[in-house]
UniProtKB/TrEMBL annotation, chain A:
InterPro entries reported for this sequence: AAA+_ATPase, ABC_carbohydrate_import_ATPase, ABC_transporter-like_ATP-bd, P-loop_NTPase
Keywords: ATP-binding, Nucleotide-binding
Domain of life where this protein originates: Bacteria
Classification via Pfam families: ABC_tran
Listed PANTHER family: CARBOHYDRATE TRANSPORT ATP-BINDING PROTEIN MG119-RELATED, SUGAR ABC TRANSPORTER ATP-BINDING PROTEIN
SUPFAM superfamilies in UniProt: P-loop containing nucleoside triphosphate hydrolases (SSF52540)
Protein name: ATP-binding cassette domain-containing protein
GO MF: ATP binding; ATP hydrolysis activity
UniProtKB/TrEMBL annotation, chain B:
Family under the similarity heading: Belongs to the ROK (NagC/XylR) family.
Taxonomic source organism: Microbispora catharanthi
Name of the protein in question: ROK family protein
Pfam families named in the record: ROK (PF00480)
SUPFAM superfamilies: Actin-like ATPase domain (SSF53067), Winged helix' DNA-binding domain (SSF46785)
Length: 258, 401
């Protein structure tokens, strides 16, 4: 728990044309911990995640991975580091089955060609290792899965490929209560296995249920990164809505960097 | 006078039990791993394994796929299909029984709904004994039952299995252990324990808290039970009644409790409180009722949201006290508290953040049960396996067919 961050961003700036969306953002994720990334709609959460994933190039700022300065200039670079992102609009192929999806775009670098049986066994082991029992057949098309099961497959894919950081952008937004509970428990299990997990959610119960740290973005600025055990619901809500709460947060109300 | 050290026989008994426990909890384990786990030499491990194999408790096999060159170490696996215990549960809304194999595998299970009426010994014992008979009839000839235990929603005297008080099952001073033992006629006593204590045991041995030394398990049924593991041991207290956190007072002027007191944690957080705050009292009962409230809250029902927040506030207050007193490594929410915690975690953790010493809370991990609905039955199974794990050969000789 007291290890340093596996992922650390410093001074990230990002603009779309004339509009600056991220201002001097710092953000860290730690092995074995769930870091919740919270903020109002439009605060820049998805943009930050896409910068981490190499989808958007950053204008300036530093990206450290495992203590080393790295340059991520595309999704491949992020994947090579072991950063897996489960986007809001899930990147699963509906017309492929679960096993095929879990291996999609991941021809083994070793050059080993895997046969179908081996792939199925690896997929089954991964799901079992995560105590996932809700999926009936690994050969069913992803299109036949519920929202929660799709999230589960996307998360399991991250585990199968030995990711070190898994980022989930609002994984429970479209789910009912029972499926949300399962995804939250899966998120927690992932971190308990030593991965660094970043969870974006608007639901404060979800955030408090599984997080070790909470990072609050306000108008494209990082208002605070705090330990979840040291803050209250009211403080987080204040950080989200006004960028500050008592001693916490941005030093001046209009969101200028302190 | 100097005490003599343990005899050879005692050492052997201890080692047999330790080895059996390793494979019971850890699953198939290679001889090489056992050698290093137990700090004994290879020939001792071989001899112990041979004894347990001869007794029919374990089996040795070549590992399926080692992927390595050289002679593979034999794998010792529990005789799950052959050696089993019977585990029972007397919950508020269900009577359940399971046949659980060595290694903690549920081989068979039965369940019946229980009406929320005063305790009816004949009905409870009759139902459970019926389940046991059905399950035993289906077993192979060479299987062997090495123990039996029941998890009860109530305060249980371990020595004789009397349920001293089970307010939510309407039981007061009922000799359930004795009756069950008589009716089952297994030639073994049926051990008895409180459901939350046994849930704690299960989560601690093979659930979310495996490897935790200090853990608190909170079990929500209608009320709230607690099991406290301190330094790896279940906290029993003088009479074995310890851990009744459901009756920890959190609100002196609060709601009346089934125990006769007022403002107990379970009175403020239990199912009736939640249902009443949500304006749904009497609509539904049990787990489905709680789920319906959490579901309604998720869909934007303000009254349901407020009910959860209210209950979460008291839950957090109770957990905060437990965190200050016990400084646990983990607090596990089981039974209906899984749903309640997930649906009110913001309140629960806010209370813990403001109501505990930083030193006592900074390491505590809050988790939901990994064993879910099986936690209490699995805990009863662990209790039932206790004898055979303590002294495998002796326990077996007593039950051998
Ligand atoms: N590709 C884009 N082009 C232009 N503006 C964008 C783009 N993506 C996001 N934005 C803008 O950036 C801001 C932050 O958006 P986003 O990162 O999606 O916020 P969040 O995920 O916190 O709701 C919004 O004002 C949004 O309109
Ligand atoms: Mg977004
Ligand atoms: Zn009480």
């Amino acid at each position: 728990m007291s290890q340093g961050p596996i992922l650390e961003l410093r001074g990230i700036n990002k603009s779309f044309g004339p509009v600056q969306v991220l201002h001097d953002v710092a953000f860290s994720a730690y092995p074995g911990e769930v870091t919740a990334l919270v903020g109002d709609n439009g605060a820049g959460k998805s943009t930050l995640v896409k910068c981490i994933g190499g989808i958007h190039p950053i204008d300036s700022g530093e990206y450290f991975f495992d203590g080393e300065r790295v340059h991520v200039s595309g999704p491949r670079d992020a994947a090579a580091l072991g950063v897996e992102i489960v986007y809001q609009d899930l990147a699963l192929c509906d017309n492929l089955d679960i096993v095929q999806n879990m291996f999609l775009g991941r021809e083994r670098r070793s050059g080993l060609v895997l046969d179908e049986d081996t792939m199925e066994e690896m997929a089954a082991k991964t799901l079992a290792g995560l105590s996932v029992r809700t999926v009936k057949s690994l050969r069913q098309h992803v299109s036949s899965l519920s929202g929660g099961q799709r999230q589960t497959v996307a998360i399991a894919k991250a585990v199968l490929w030995n990711s070190k950081v898994v980022i989930l952008d609002e994984p429970t937004a479209a789910l009912g209560v029972a499926q949300t509970a399962q995804v939250l428990e899966l998120v927690r299990r992932l971190a308990d296995r030593g991965l660094a997990v970043v969870l974006i959610s608007h639901n404060m119960n979800d955030v408090f249920a599984v997080s070790d740290r909470i990072a609050a973005l306000y108008l494209g600025r990082m208002a605070a990164e705090v330990k979840a055990s040291e803050v209250t619901h009211a403080q987080i809500v204040e950080l989200i809505t006004s960028g500050r709460s008592g001693e916490l947060g941005l030093k001046n109300g209009n969101g200028a960097a302190s | 006078m100097m005490r003599a050290g343990p005899s050879q026989e005692e050492i052997r008994k201890h080692n047999l039990g330790t080895l059996l426990r390793h494979v019971h909890l850890g699953g198939p384990t290679s001889r090489a791993e056992l050698t290093s786990l137990m700090g004994l030499n290879r020939s001792t491990i071989m001899a112990l394994t041979a004894d347990l194999t001869a007794a029919g408790l374990v089996r040795e096999e070549l590992p399926k796929d080692t992927g390595r060159a050289g002679r593979p170490s034999l794998v010792v696996r529990p005789e799950t299909a052959r050696v089993y215990v019977l585990a029972f549960e007397v919950g508020v809304d269900r009577l359940a029984a399971a046949r659980i194999g060595l290694g903690g595998v549920i081989l068979d299970r039965r369940e019946a709904a229980r009406a929320r009426e005063p305790f009816d010994m004949a009905q409870v014992v009759g139902t459970l004994a019926g389940f046991a008979r059905q399950m035993r009839r289906k077993t192979r000839e060479d299987t062997i039952c090495v123990g039996a235990a029941a998890a009860v929603s109530g305060v249980v005297r371990a020595s004789d299995g009397v349920v001293r008080i089970g307010p939510n099952i309407g039981a007061f001073e009922v000799p359930l252990g004795e009756e069950l033992t008589k009716r089952l006629a297994l030639g073994l006593p049926v051990a008895m324990g409180n459901e939350a204590n046994l849930g704690a045991l299960a989560e601690h041995t093979r659930g979310i808290g495996a490897g935790c030394r200090d853990l608190i398990y909170l079990h929500g049924d209608v009320g709230i039970g607690g099991g406290i593991i301190v330094n790896g041991q279940l906290l029993g207290g003088y009479g074995g009644y310890g851990g009744e956190v459901g009756h920890m007072m959190v609100n002196p002027d609060g709601r009346p409790c089934a125990c006769g007191s007022r403002g107990c944690l379970e009175a403020e957080v239990g199912e009736p409180a939640l249902m009443e705050h949500a304006g749904r009292y009497g609509e539904m009962i049990g787990r489905d009722a709680v789920r319906a409230v959490v579901d309604a809250a998720d869909r934007g029902d303000v009254m349901a949201q407020e009910a959860l927040a209210h209950v979460g506030n008291w839950l957090g207050l109770g957990v905060a006290s437990l965190v200050n007193i016990f400084n646990p490594e983990m607090v596990v929410f089981g039974g209906i508290l899984r749903e309640i915690y997930l649906g009110s975690a913001a309140q629960v953790r806010s209370r813990i953040a403001t109501g505990t010493l930083r030193a006592t809370r900074e390491q505590v991990r809050l988790r939901t049960s990994a064993l879910g609905d099986d936690a209490t039955l699995m805990g009863a199974a662990e209790l039932a396996f206790a004898q055979v794990l303590a002294d495998p050969l002796e326990a077996l000789s007593r039950v051998a067919p």
